[in-house]
Amino acid sequence: MLEAPNSQSKPLKSTLNLPQTAFPMKANLPVNEPLRLAQWKKSDLYGQIRRARAGAPRYILHDGPPYANGAIHLGHALNKGLKDFIVKSKTMAGFDAPYVPGCDCHGLPIEIKVEEQLGRKRLELPATAIMEACRAYAQKFVDLQISQFVRLGVFGRWDKPYKTMTRDYEARTLEAFYGFLEKGFVYRGLKPVYWCIHDRTTLAEAEVEYEQHTSPSIYVRYRLTSDPSTILGAPSMTASPSWVGEVSQNPVYTIIWTTTPWTLPASLAVAFHPEMEYVALATSDTTYIVAASLAAQVIAACNLTGAHEVARFPGTALDRATFAHPFLDRTVLGVNATYVTADQGTGAVHTAPAHGVDDFATGQRYGLPEVQYVDDAGRQIGTERFGGGQPQPYEGLTVFKSNPVIVELLKERGALLAISHLEHSYPHCWRCHNPVITRATEQWFIGMDTPVKRADGSGTTLRQLAIDEIDKVVWDPAWGKVRITNMIATRPDWCISRQKIWDVPIAVFLCRQCSRPIVSAELNRAVVALIEREGIEAWRTPAADALLPAGAVCAHCGGTAFRKETDILDVWIDAGVSWFAVCEADPDLKSAYTAFQNREDVPVLYLEGADQYRGWFHSSLLTSVALRGHAPYSRVVTNGWTLDEQGRALSKSLGNFIDPVAIMDQLGGDIVRLWVASVDFREDVVASLPLLKRLAEEIYRKLRNTFRFLLGALSETDPSTGLAHDFDPRPMADGGDGIAFDAMQPIDQYILARTADLTGKIRKAYEDFEFHRVYHLLNEFCNSELSAFYLDVLKDRLYTYPIKFKQGHAEQERLYLARRSAQTAIYKITDALARLTAPILSFTADEVYQSLPHTPDHQASVHLTLFPKPEDLAVTEAAFLVDFWHDHVIPMRERVLEVLEELRKYKQIGKSLEAQVHIFAPKEIIDLFIGRLGADTFAELLNVSQVTFQADDTNMVRVVPSQAVGTKCDRCWRHVPDVGQREKYPTVCLRCAEALDAIDFPPYAATNS
Ligand SMILES: [Zn+2]
Ligand SMILES: [Zn+2]
Ligand SMILES: [Zn+2]
Fold it and tell me: In this structure, which of 68, 787, 947, 964 has its CB flanked by the most CB atoms within 10 Å?
């Protein structure tokens, strides 16, 4: 064995073509990504991409505007990351996919913040000054958020996003409102709405969140004042003989149950279900009427000792009975209503038309007055109008504070039968998190059941048309369709007015006499023009008053005096008309969007968090159906919430908050992007600092090292000249180094076939928005196919085969071409992987792409390229190759590796190059192997020094390893018989001798032998 040190060993080693690349192992993303961003900006990369796709099929992802009142959080990063994956992958699939980002700038949250900052000063300021402060506040966060999304590597028209507060947008929002008004969708009416007494404004369904709240739970009795015998006279009444007698002596009550004692002053009726059975329960001195099915429960809750049923009758018997209010000098009417349930309570429902949607409807049916004793701030007011001008003890208290006072009053009057406390899910304001109330106020509404015409001229309602349109949209995940359908089917009319300042005004003139608006298209256009010139502030200035035509007369009552409405629009109108204000109007979108509206094949995608079924998806659908008769999108996708590993929301107070900006500063934007790709976004997703660190230190690092190895194989230095050479991927016929597919080595053909297969799968996964599948496919390919297999077996060929050959030296040329074959495969794989990863690892993929040897058609950035096509990678036989290797070669290789591992374990061999392998198999298999792959391939594939084949008649493949025969080559370390056969290079094998000769390596003498 020739193990003695050799004087030539160092120079021999210098003839190996070890990987060399400037692509660093350490990514240093926090420093390098901002440099790349600056480069992209300087070269106007987004503009270049847009110009490159001009005329291509169009794809619109319409951005839902995030609210501009804070820095971005991880949920934003998830959503914007997903959008960027889609826009980039569509662009690389050949679509013209513009991305116009949006910013939501109006509304309560900003106004509240600004009011807080202004403090008492705001009371002296005109509305226009507050609006100016809101504008500045919103702009500050628009700028901040944009800088953070840009840092994340999201491509888009960041220099000109759409903002709901630009004059254009404000004018378009108002124009949309006038559209609803002129088409008859809008009415003004008294309605119970969610009301925040803290913010003193109405809240939309979407602005209400359910949180736990403790309420008093009380049973109150109402004394029957009408004649009990009318109940007795009910047709299907059953009564024991004693009923009449007992009733004539004892007072009769019904019992109501409520958790809102503060609504009792407005109690005008008690509702009974017309088809439910009610019973009269007699105690020694009193008779109570409650639902039969709830009687046992009520007896227990109210401790009605000795109560027993004396009569049974239907709820219809109680219709128009009368009761005395428990503490006010007022009559309460018995009414029938079908929403009364037997789930809980007593079956007798206290009804305050001002404080409940059902109650309101019942009040209207029975002609009850809509009394309202609660003001904007939630205070009980005007209570002296009962009880002889004396204010009630709860006068002036806010509703929640009035609860105990009213309970005390009930006790005093003997009306309280039981009290306990109930912790239940209760609506809260999404901004201030205080409990909200329901309160009847004068508001503006879009009527959900407004009649509309379908495209075919048949009649329907806004609600039904919206439901019809939902059916034409692809909802992803599919349950979204059910969710939004139910919401549209059951929602009340859309309350679109707010009593605040910072939003587009409901810019109408109201008749002072009848409060109805002037509806004039001409006047409306004039107001829109004013807003377009001067912004929404102008509505609060005399410039707006001047637009009222001289001598205007109310069309309804003939009134001649008018006032300007000061209510503003619901902020969901702003965002909800973005299809109208942006898609239909923006120069980058309008032609494609109009084509979509004309039913041409232009996809329009909305992608937001799942809370937007009640928010933006919802408001956009209704506005588009109202104004255009169809849905504003063709596909709606939702992402889940971002939670920690215990399933809790990420929050600063829990200490599990993850700031995506800090992660980008510490680990890199590509790490945040890789995380977005790694999760199944349709479900709730998990994020934690350790998880992100693991992504950076394990997954990302492995991918990066694979790229580094690949790139390293594409550059070489000729030791004889010292000249560096980069692999030139052009075909040899054109002066390059590239080998045609059919002339490539079998292993290289196989890996390209695998890459082609991967390309097809990844492109499909992008198309299906299955980014976590892209992530897994990529990782698996880099780990199993490249690192553990291909790049491992390739080392010998890449490092030891000659990098050039002398004319006429056929063996040198053969070896040279085999090496070029590997490099051709590596170039194609690297190029394909850079393109396929570009939508996700946007920074790193560009770095890889730019590190690739450049050809004349090489783009300046990977983001200007298209995705590879499978057929470009493996020209012929791709499917056959994959199957053949999968069925025959890979299993055989695995078996050999196992056996060698065994031998190593028992120290029978050291390195696998010390082994040779004998393959025994049926003749046809051997013929197939040698025919398809050639004998040489096997040694490379198995990473052993020699492989022999022998046909036998068993029906299986057997592998028998043994110690390799021959001597260890000093250069390639294979143990082969031909070491030393070439005199001038006595310590190397013939193959290495060819490589040395090719570069005119000086002959040397063997020493020590
Ligand atoms: Zn509030
Ligand atoms: Zn009028
Ligand atoms: Zn050798």
Answer: 68
> Which one-letter DSSP state was computed for residue 885?
I
pLDDT at 600: 95
> Minimum-distance ligand to the CA of 556?
2
The count of other CB atoms within 10 Å of the CB of residue 256 is 27
Q: Report which bound ligand comes closest to the CA of 511.
A: 2
Q: Which residues face 187 on adjacent strands?
A: 445
d(CA 89, CA 95): 9
CA of 432 to the centre of ligand 1 (A): 4
Structure confidence at residue 246 (pLDDT): 53
Taking the C-alpha atoms of residue 73 and residue 688, their distance in angstroms, rounded to an integer, is: 13
Bigger pLDDT: 998 vs 384: 998
Calculate how far, in angstroms, residue 429's C-alpha sits from the geometric centre of ligand 1: 5
Strands 685-686 and 642-643: parallel
Single-letter amino acid, residue 677: A
Q: Rounded CA gap, 192 and 359, in Å?
A: 9
* Residues with Cβ within 8 Å of residue 263, at least 6 apart in sequence: 350, 352, 355, 356
**Cα 522 to ligand 2 centre (Å):** 19
* Among 631, 530, 634, 526, residue whose Cα is nearest residue 576: 631
- Looking at mean pLDDT, say which of 466-470, 715-719, 888-892 comes out highest: 466-470
Please give the full DSSP string across 31-79, using - where no structure is assigned.
HHHHHHHHHHHHTTHHHHHHHHTTTSPB-EEPPPPPBSSS---HHHHHH
The pair phi, psi for residue 66, each rounded to 5°, is: -70, 150
How far apart are alpha carbons 1009 and 1007 in whole angstroms? 6
Ligand 3 centroid to Cα of residue 453, in Å, is: 84
Residue 775 neighbours by CB distance under 10 Å: 23
Taking the C-alpha atoms of residue 825 and residue 835, their distance in angstroms, rounded to an integer, is 15
Residues in the chain: 1009
Distance 377 CA to ligand 1 centre (A): 11
**Alpha carbon distance 653, 233 (integer Å):** 64
pLDDT, position 879? 80
Query: Which residues, 6 or more positions from 312, have their beta carbon under 8 angstroms from its beta carbon?
Result: 237, 238, 239, 277, 278, 279, 280, 292
C-alpha 441/C-alpha 375 separation (Å) is: 10
pTM (two decimals): 0.85
Q: Give the distance (Å) from ligand 3 centre to CA of residue 898.
A: 26
Ligand nearest to the CA of 969: 3
Mean pLDDT of 872-894: 84
5: pLDDT strictly greater than 50: no
| Distance from residue 561's CA to the centre of ligand 2 (Å) | 8
As a whole number, mean pLDDT of residues 739-749 equals 94
User: Residue 556 Cα, ligand 2 centroid: separation in angstroms?
Assistant: 5
Q: Report the DSSP beta bridge partners of residue 67.
A: 104
818 Cα–ligand 3 center, Å: 15
Q: Which ligand is nearest to the CA of 514?
A: 2
Shortest-distance ligand to the CA of residue 431? 1
Nearest CA to 271 out of 338, 208, 220, 371 is that of 338
Measured in angstroms, how far is the CA atom of residue 368 from the centroid of ligand 1?
30
584 vs 240: which has the higher pLDDT: 584
Contacts of 1003 (CB under 8 A, 6+ apart): 983, 984, 985
How much distance in Å is there from the Cα of 197 to the middle of ligand 1? Answer: 7
Q: Which ligand lies nearest to the CA atom of residue 975 in the structure?
A: 3
